[in-house]
Amino acid sequence: xxxxxxxxxxxxxxxxxxxxxxxxxxxxxxxxxxxxxxxxxxxxxxxxxxxxxxxxxxxxxxxxxxxxxxxxxxxxxxxxxxxxxxxxxxxxxxxxxxxxxxxxxxxxxxxxxxxxxxxxxxxxxxxxxxxxxxxxxxxxxxxxxxxxxxxxxxxxxxxxxxxxxxxxxxxxxxxxxxxxxxxxxxxxxxxxxxxxxxxxxxxxxxxxxxxxxxxxxxxxxxxxxxxxxxxxxxxxxxxxxxxxxxxxxxxxxxxxxxxxxxxxxxxxxxxxxxxxxxxxxxxxxxxxxxxxxxxxxxxxxxxxxxxxxxxxxxxxxxxxxxxxxxxxxxxxxxxxxxxxxxxxxxxxxxxxxxxxxxxxxxxxxxxxxxxxxxxxxxxxxxxxxxxxxxxxxxxxxxxxxxxxxxxxxxxxxxxxxxxxxxxxxxxxxxxxxxxxxxx
Length: 439
Prior knowledge:
Blueprint lengths: L3 E2 L6 E2 L6 E2 L3 E3 L4 H13 L4 E3 L15 E3 L7 E5 L4 E5 L4 H10 L2 E2 L11 H6 L16 E7 L5 E5 L4 H7 L8 E8 L1 E2 L2 E10 H14 L2 E6 L5 E10 L8 H25 L4 H11 L3 E5 L1 H5 L7 E9 L3 H14 L8 E6 L14 E9 L5 H12 L4 E2 L9 H7 L3 H11 L8 H7 L2
Parallel strand pairs: 4-6, 5-6
Antiparallel strand pairs: 1-2, 2-3, 7-8, 8-12, 9-13, 10-11, 10-12, 14-16, 14-17, 15-16, 15-19, 18-20, 18-21, 19-20
Helix pairs in contact: 6-7, 9-10
């Protein structure tokens, strides 16, 4: 769910700075019982309810003018079951803390996204994902869920218990209840070898199927206004560990990828005509490198430059065609895009409203620097994506509504029916859910 706060006059703002709202009431419950009581009290007052995490959603998915629940006290590991290969965590636990705690226990998630600032419930409820040939989103690694539903009762679900709720609630958009705990599948910690290397756009497109098939985790970034990409392949390794040296890591990940990139974006925002030249330089600034480390140190990286983002999942076989159309659109337009376009993949999963539900998917994410006019670019990109039955990421900017979404999600009706059953009075309503799920 997203949400960072500025406490100024009780206004809540998201990380991207494009959503702000003033809730009537805020609570930070210290237990599931306190949270359930707060939901019941809100019901008595006829007030809508939303839980927020760290605000990394760019949509207003967590916005409410009613009761805002902050799960910051609901953090930490409840239990580790080594025999079953699971760990149960409180919903407000940041991914960063989960990853560190698991590593100390010699455990790891199989796959994860590229940042770890979000809470586990916020990340999973919006469908946060990394890239993977065989392993899918964070939500697809869930083995059990606990949530407080609209009447204040606590519901648990898994493949065996309330399986219909489990199918939907792993990516529940905050529409079915407030998630209070999540049980993840974990495995003994392992090593990943990363190989980052620049590659011409045309070569990536021509060899995409092969690059995808030969690597456990393949992704690449295309720099608009150039024919250049930076590719990243992560594969399991027998070792030895060869982390990025601290100074080199600081220079490449902080100085180039955050510091210089921030300055370049400031210049580009002030003088858009400079963007193509800057893009040509920055797309060549990162040289090839390989390193081997534990998963979260390879999958994730710091993102300090603020931006806005739109991301769509298209059928994997449609990726190259979609990407070429996006490039052609940028090339013929007057747009000046200073942020790279990120491409990742996920195998089909069985979660009702997962962007990879029932189909092998490829993700294309477009970004614009905070404070630059993004609407023209995002609107044109969205046209390209929807022509390929694209499914928008629930936590990123898009303009789709229930009518469109019901066409691209075969199980859309199933989710809506479950919502009618669990939240008939729409206690967890807000404008965003009204748009994407219908009233």
